[in-house]
Amino acid sequence: MTKASVMVRVARRLRALRNLPRLRRTPLFDAGWYLETYDDLAGLVAHADVRNQAKRTARAAAMHYLVHGADEGRDPSAGFSTSGYRLQGWDETGNPLLHHLENPGAYAPLPVFDGTRPDVCVDAPVVLFCAHQALGQQFGAERSFLTMLERAGKAGLAVEVVLPHCHDAAYLAACRDRARAVRLIPYGWRRRGKVPHPTTVAALKAAIHDSGACEVHVNTLACDAPLAAARAVGVPGVVYLRELPQEDAELCARLGFDPDLLRTTLLEESDRFVANSAATAHWIDPGKQLEPGRLVTLPNRVDEALFDLPFAPQKPLRVALISSNIAKKGIADACRVARTALRLGLDVEVLLIGPASADLAALGPLPRNMRHAGYAEGPLQALALADVVLSLSHFAESFGRTVLEAMAAGRPVVSYDRGTPPVLIAGRGNDALPAAGHVVPAGDVDAVVQALEHLLATPEAMSAASAGGRARARAIQDEAAALEDAQLYANAYR
């Protein structure tokens, strides 16, 4: 560590110590909420003297927020949104909560952004949609949330949105384009043994009352606070299922639940469910015992513009893994695919399309026929870089939105036989549509390379997979469109 960096750290800590009394006087900083919401901070007070535990805990939490938390985008309580404060136009360096305490009328602590969707009937029923996250980059669940809003808007409903945070102005704009209003209210993910913090539930209850919502729809099973608020005011809570917990040990570990207990908890907390696939529907209701209307299956829909994206394979063939570039998405497998293809002399370039990540850096130097192409702003931009798409996840994808997007764009897919992607690619054997690519045994990198070799050597197979993918994607789009709105928004249609 350089002398200059030490001086910077000392200066930051001294500033934090000067501001500590002011922070601890304001109700907009809640040490208990802060530590409950960010469970990675549990070690802050692990060795504190038990006799002074409460005092030391509050001080440690406040110092963390002042020195690190605000810069990391963390919220100090359910009553103040760090990212929301910045999105209102405050672009200075420093701590937004301290700025608010010095300038209380400058910006709202919990902003409500007007939506820009013009065609909302004044008397339309209101549905409140709660996101699970809105980080700086959009992946499958975040894009699916936008399609949730679009669907409700097309059904003639008034859409209001709650984001727990938002670190992407473009994503906020996308939500506003599809809604009457967008609120920033901090809340975290569920954790076994913890109930949602009372101040979080109170803030969400106020949003339900203020919006006049007749239903609360929650994106993914990760968040319990919106469901608690909905129950408290007597409004139905609807969960959109996008995970297969029995196949995702990492998710279960993060939430602290085993799959069976998580299912039981969700059945107690939620009035209805919208499953994105037959697999997620089976997970929540394995015995098909739920009462009629409590569970519907709605496949993901993708951007219609993908169907018009030209398909003209290049040389070398661009083989892409489009993901968040974390280990469980199979980036190391893609690296092995590239090395094997290089050894065999296949004319392919393997692309990793997605953000930089620690897992990507851990791979070390990539083979010369492989490169990191960076994050693409959306599926159109990503798929314009690809001729063939890989699905190599180490867990069972509950749907496989990227696979469906590739199919809509006419890109053949090579997928491990795991989760729902194989069903998207080849169906269940009950239709005559061509397969959208190849399904190979999970973990079998050599089989992936053999599938690529077949596509390279057989142009007619490449064309058939492209056409088959588009036909299958169209059928899935039509299936989603055919689901009656009353099945999704039952309370709004009474």
TrEMBL record:
What GO molecular function annotations does the UniProt record carry, in alphabetical order? Answer: glycosyltransferase activity
Q: Does the keyword Heme apply?
A: no
Q: Which domain of life is it from?
A: Bacteria
Which segments constitute the Glycosyltransferase subfamily 4-like N-terminal domain? 140-304
Tell me where the transmembrane regions lie. Answer: none
Query: A Pfam family in this protein?
Result: Glyco_transf_4
Q: Which SUPFAM superfamilies match?
A: UDP-Glycosyltransferase/glycogen phosphorylase
Q: Which UniProt keywords apply?
A: Glycosyltransferase, Transferase
Instruction: Spell out the PANTHER family in the cross-references.
Output: D-INOSITOL 3-PHOSPHATE GLYCOSYLTRANSFERASE (PTHR12526:SF510), GLYCOSYLTRANSFERASE (PTHR12526)
* Protein name listed in UniProt: Glycosyltransferase family 4 protein
Say which species the protein is native to: Pseudotabrizicola algicola
